[in-house]
# Entry
Amino acid sequence: MTLSMAKYINGAIKVKVSGHMPEKFINLCVAQNILLWGINKSGSDLFVWMFLNDFYTIRAIARKSRTRVSIIKRYGLPFTVKRLKKRKILLIGPVIFFIVLNVLASYIWFVDVIGIKNLRSDRVKEIAYSQGLKPGAMKNNINSKHIENEILVNLPEVAWVGVTFSGTRAVVEVVEKNIAKPEDKSPAHIVAAKDGIITEAIILAGQSTLKKGDTVKRGDLLIKGFIPEQITSPTSADQPPIISVPQQLIKAKGIVKARVWYESYGESELVKAIHERTGEQQVSVILKIGSNEIVLKNSQQEQFKLYDTEVIHKKLPRWRNSDFVVESIINIFHELEEKTSEITLEEARDQAKSKALETVQRNIPETANILSRNIELINTSEPNLVRVKVTIEAEEEIGQSIVISQQ
Amino acid sequence: MQSPKKGRLQRLAGLLEIPQDIVMDLPRITMLGNKQLLVENHKGIIEYTPSLIRIKLNQGELIVSGANFTLGNLQIEQILVEGTVEEIRYDA
# Structure
């Protein structure tokens, strides 16, 4: 390994030795400690590989052995360098390439803003651009600390900003503050969202005559958005009471809890028909070119009494946004068999119950407190059918804020 | 060849278990099948053609005949013959 490397670095030449006694030339070389290899003879000429440095010392040997020496082949770094010196452009090309690459990589080409939720990225970009962070700017001239501060100062919604570079891309990472939304202060009533019996009524703002045990219907006014009228009690008997302050609209606040009932029905059949795949199948293959369809393989799915169809579209993957017009459609027809499955009354009831519960659960809000659950079996005229009624009693907040439209 | 001095040296080498080629200045010939032939401690090439090589040794010469001979790595102390070796003969 080291020898072949030495051959490449120092350079080697193949020499043709022609003359009367080429063996003498070899012996003299060996005596002079010149390394020879790949010695070959064709006719009377001898071909020898040797190091380039040794070539300058063999002149005397050639004269002594009365042979003529001429170079046939050159190999190694010294010759490559010599050739490259002749073709300077070949060397300059890669150098220019790396210089251009370096220069282009030292500019910013893209500015990305990430981490934005509510803010517009234009606003962040605008500030970044005005501070010099824009496509075409030199990376070295950009003070990312300064830009970060500038964005933080100009955008109060931003909690933290980081400016980083990845290649020619400048990434502005923004973390927004979580600012609490200003409360809606417009006057509003609280009305009942559902029918129910009031169990608890806490009025924080507004006017109400609600009592525990009152029955309300959906849409009933629970808390009025008025400031309670101030009735100045008569200071003396002869003065009539003054009802002074005009009613002022406010936003009603309060917690109104009520008992609410939910009802739902569920059914289940004792004997049910189900379709099962028998395993028999027919396949048809259609080749679609543009809008033309060519049937490659037809199927006799008509021989199945019942079947379901599975359609597989096979397409070539999209290539450079152009869709291929060729597509193959494989239809698989599975034969179906009708079977009846019987279940016991108990199982049918459970199924009906779970169905009913599922539908009723959708209407009950998660915050509701379920008080009782009543499941009732309903007798039907049909012997095959099991019907279940589910009643759920829950306590929940029924107040709903409705803005008072002001004239 | 068999001078009394040489005979004594050989006995001494045998006694001390020293390889004889070092003591006696004999050529060491290594063959790899019939593909390669390495001759160490030679005294030069007398004749070289692709089918015949004559190598000068301390005493006499080694005649190698065969086909497609090339000499690889020719140095002062060794010769590597590559090709197809058919016959090796000592000629004193």
